Amino acid sequence: MSARDYPRPSVSVDLVVLTIVDAQLRVLLVKRKVYPFKGSWALPGGFVRVGELPDDQGEDLDAAAKRELEEETGLGPDRVYLEQLFTFGKAGRDPRMRVITVAYYALVRPDLAPLVRAGGDVSDAEWFEVSTLKKMELAFDHREIIEVAVDRVRGKLDYSDIAFELVPMTFTIPELRHVYAIVTGKEMDPGNFRRRFNRMIENGVLEKAPGKRITVSKPATVYRFKRLA
Amino acid sequence: MSARDYPRPSVSVDLVVLTIVDAQLRVLLVKRKVYPFKGSWALPGGFVRVGELPDDQGEDLDAAAKRELEEETGLGPDRVYLEQLFTFGKAGRDPRMRVITVAYYALVRPDLAPLVRAGGDVSDAEWFEVSTLKKMELAFDHREIIEVAVDRVRGKLDYSDIAFELVPMTFTIPELRHVYAIVTGKEMDPGNFRRRFNRMIENGVLEKAPGKRITVSKPATVYRFKRLA
DNA sequence: TAAATAGTGTCTATGAGACATTATGTA
DNA sequence: TACATAATGTCTCATAGACACTATTTA
Questions:
Q1: Is there a contact between B17 and B73 (Cβ–Cβ < 8 Å)?
Q2: What single DSSP character describes residue B219?
Q3: Is there contact between B195 and strand C, defined as CB under 7 Å from any strand atom?
Q4: Half-sphere exposure (CA, 13 Å, Cβ side) for B98?
Q5: Taking Cα atoms as reference points, which of B189, B115, B179, B129 lies closest to residue B153?
Q6: Which of A9, A164, B124, B159 is deepest in the core (most CB within 10 A)?
């Protein structure tokens, strides 16, 4: 019996698409229209397209994630941060059949978030506050997947650039500080927080950008993040 | 057409089993006895056992990793640190057919490493120095997988307890320092290094253990790592 | 006793956090 | 002008690194 003949699992890609809108960390969920979990909210995702032929084996795993992202949000992968998260493969996690899912997470800038519903071919897609998911019934093990994703984002906040994926293209340091506060749940001291980014400003990693915020007092300087090549 | 009827990929589990022996970071490889890459060295691994029935969907992904670890090294998962690494799923990475592999990495204490060859059912298994792999032809994308694993270990060294998985059950601070030096490639100052673990010693996370090293000068204190429950 | 390494002490630079102060815009 | 918030400054403390020094064991 060749390896070819063993039973195979279905492999899907699930997306934890996160954004910050109205001072809340939100995740994009779609309403399931079929069994199982019909009517429940679930992560957007789908099966990896696999070819039958050795020469055409189908799409790459990353390509499947990008395709699903585009299909379900209308956002191209160039506008969104996308990274593999973890693979969930417990037996029984899908009652129909064996499904192993490779989860990805995506970070959507708040200014792009409103575009999502128009672009998707899924009619019932909504941004839910992560903090309110506890009360909801989610499909499959999607609650656990979201938890892992949020933990990952929290963990990477301090040693990576992902915070810049959760503010608009141009932003102020106070806006960036709000991102930190929302993700970590802790307010940061405005003065100390700014100092953390002073070097980036001197480096030119953050450069001044045109634009202005409507404020009741002194407006903050607007910056743009220049990703180093 | 139901989801059931789409073509499915094979899903395998590959293991990057690492240890430190003779002052070298080493990875366990097995010689392939079948095509493709017959005769090449490859990561130990195998296909996830998938059930055909909704009620019996087969083994969990983690269980597959533990099973392979036991089969190929003879080491139970209780004696070895095992963690999911990353999922590699490019089309064409296996020329025969579409295979998506979930890679795990395992850390084996140096005193257990010699037991490995006896226990495995794979006759041709050997520990290779990671630094010499560049010259070798490895099967599939296994070189890339090893690289990701080593990067992961390097990255986690400073903020996790994994260094203790690469020394014997009882060890000295200088021995631990050698682990850091070998993994990171940088020698650490002995005095400063020790200070990093002074708090753990005061906490009781590290406790004195019986045992002694054969040395040419003052022998170091032997400790045991007490994992907090 | 000599050699070697374990382990401690000291100094400095750096960064985080608490908090005060100044600067600059809006209403 | 009053107010609010941005932005800067100051102080303290914890930590990392460089390096000198002491302690202890072996040969």
A1: yes
A2: P
A3: yes
A4: 23
A5: B179
A6: A9
Strands A99-108 and A10-21: parallel
| Environment class of B199 (CB within 10 Å of its CB; exposed 0-12, middle 13-18, buried 19+) | exposed
In order of their start, the domains of chain B are: 3-156 (3.90.79.10), 162-228 (1.10.10.10)
Per-residue pLDDT tens for B173-199?
999 999 999 999 999 999 999 999 999
Q: How far is B15 from chain A (nearest CA, A)?
A: 15
Tokens 């590959």 map to which residue? Answer: B14
DSSP-derived 3-state class of residue B114: helix
Residues of chain B with Cβ-Cβ distance to A68 below 8 Å are none
Mark which residues 186-215 of B lie under 8 Å from A by CB.
none
B81, β-bridge pairs = B107
Q: Which of residues 19-78 of A touch strand D (CB under 7 A)?
A: none
C-alpha distance from residue A41 to each of A140, B10, B178 (Å): 10, 29, 51
How do residues B129-178 score in pLDDT, each as one tens digit? Answer: 999 999 999 999 999 999 999 999 999 999 999 999 999 999 999 999 99
Q: What sign for the dihedral angle of Cα B185, B191, B196, B202? A: positive
Q: Cis check for the bond before B9: say yes or no (omega within 30 of 0).
A: no
Instruction: Confirm whether any atom of chain C, the nucleic acid strand, is less than 7 Å from CB of B173.
Output: yes
- The number of residues making up chain B comes to 229
Mean pLDDT per 10-residue section of chain A, whose length is 229 residues = 78 98 96 93 97 93 97 92 98 96 98 80 84 96 98 96 97 97 96 95 94 94 88
Q: How far is the CA of B195 from the C1' of C6 (A)?
A: 13
Which residues are paired to B24 by β-bridges? B21
Q: What is the DSSP string of A77-124?
A: TTSSEEEEEEEE--TTSSSSS-EEEEEEEEEE-TTTGGGHHHH-S-SS
- The 10 Å Cβ neighbour count of residue B114 is 11
Longest dimension (CA), chain A: 75
% of chain B residues with pLDDT over 70: 95
How many Å lie between the alpha carbon of A45 and the closest alpha carbon of chain B?
A: 13
Copy the structure tokens of residue B135. Answer: 């010259």
Mean pLDDT of the B52-78 span = 94
